[in-house]
Amino acid sequence: MDFRDKFKQLDLGIGTSLSRRPIFKYLDKETGKTIALKRIILRHELLQALPLTGSSNSRQEQPIDVGIPANTIRQISLYRILDHPNIASLEYLGNDPGDHFVRLGFEYVGVDLRKFQKDNAIRSRHPKLIKSLMYQLLSGIAYYHSVNASHGNINPTNVLISNYGDDNNDDEQVNLLITNLDLCVQPSYQAPEILLESNRLSTAVDMFSAGCIFGEMLIGKPVFDTENELGSIFKLLGTPTKQTMRGVIDLDEKLKKYQKHSPKDLSETFIGVEPAGIDLLSKLLCLNPKERIMASEALKHRYFYGIEAKKRVPTPAAAAAAEVGNSSVGPFAAEVGSSSAGPSAAMDSLAAGTSAVVGSPAASASVLVESWIDMVSAALDSSEN
Amino acid sequence: IASFIEDERNFVPGFDYLARFRSHPLDASARAHSVAWILKVYSYYGFQPLTVYLAVNYFDRFLYSRRLPNTGGWPLQLLSVACLSLAAKMEEPLVPSLLDLQVEGSKYIFEPRTIRRMELLVLNVLDWRLRSITPFSFTGFFACKLDSTGTLTGFLISRA
Q1: What predicted TM-score, i.e. pTM, was given to this entire model?
Q2: Which residues of chain A are within 8 Å of residue B114 when distances are taken between CB atoms?
Q3: I need a surface site. Which of A54, A153, B36, B114 has the fewest CB within 10 A?
Q4: Which of A48-62, A247-261, B103-117 has maximum average pLDDT?
């Protein structure tokens, strides 16, 4: 089905993506669910035309004739299997008729963390609420890591808060979803090893970002500066030395321009936070990725004693998603049934035509191959409708 | 592990795939030919075994849900190239370009542009579900069971 028929654009957009395009929310006309749409460009020519900023996904240089970028394939096939109460599910996946880009529709409920904090300045700093939200955030990250993946871009715009109701609502009910919309964010929530351009990245990068978010929840404003990211990180956590960041990167060259700082006592910056919280924060904001706490360990940290992993709150979106999940047990079976009728007949007729052409000059053969792919694609579209 | 078993079902062709080879629409020898080619490229580039397994997995799943015109070798060859390219992109740290991938006596050479479109077609047919549950997912689990300390796990997996 055509995208425009299925979805209705909702509002003025929720931000600007890394490729300088606004991202909009859409309403699914059938199910009433809201999604946020992100586009992944497939054509390499187009990718190069865009000014790419710090997205970790775009760093890898690729030769021109590799087909669909490997990162895109890995990303989307990962989204396809993610299934966790604290991770926004992929609700829609389709490519445009010209095959220039893929549209990804992610479940979108509530508001992002930044807006939540702005609109609920007092509520959002309840220690109990922070604890519940952090637990959910780390659960989602732990799930990412359990399937051998890392999120790579944890920041307040990728964290959705829903079901918070009014001030009297139970803190335990508030729901958190991790999504991945590639929105431009200031300041950075990236780990120091990314900013130092280490080429050995790991799941630990997500943990540092989680630490930044934790700190931001505790003091109500971003922990690190916009302009001088590394400088402000070092100011709080100390400038790394060969001992504190051993083996990660060759430091001498890159650290020249930074002032030397010694680590500060976090409890002086984060006043009034319980000691267990300070301890967890220091383990998340550990400079050395190798010593940084892992998500599964962090969930067992004593800061979270008494918190239970919870089931997804049955928002309308989640309930509908569950239904879809059940009905799609045999996606291939369904497809085969429909394709055997109409499209395959079309293919047979095409087959009769192609047999003669294979031996003909290469140029016209490749045109024919193209037209054949068109045909099969068309068959695919028609079987979906 | 239970979820592996549950999920594996979504990543294999249906049970009647074999039966359809016996009846005529799918040609078993053509498939063997394609798989042999994939294996040749695998040894040429020293890919991981998982890459090959995935490529054949995509190949079979595509054939299970789509029929290709049964004439000439080129549709199957194009499918092989696209599947191998996708699998390599999923698993290999270094992926040869689409032209370089077509080595080891492939009869037809396709333009990168064409393969790109075929890749997209395969992705759409497979619903972008490329992280298949394979026997490799299980060996890791069983190796851990045999050797709980984890020292020999890597060795066991490599031997399996």
Answers
A1: 0.73
A2: 366, 369-370, 373
A3: B36
A4: B103-117
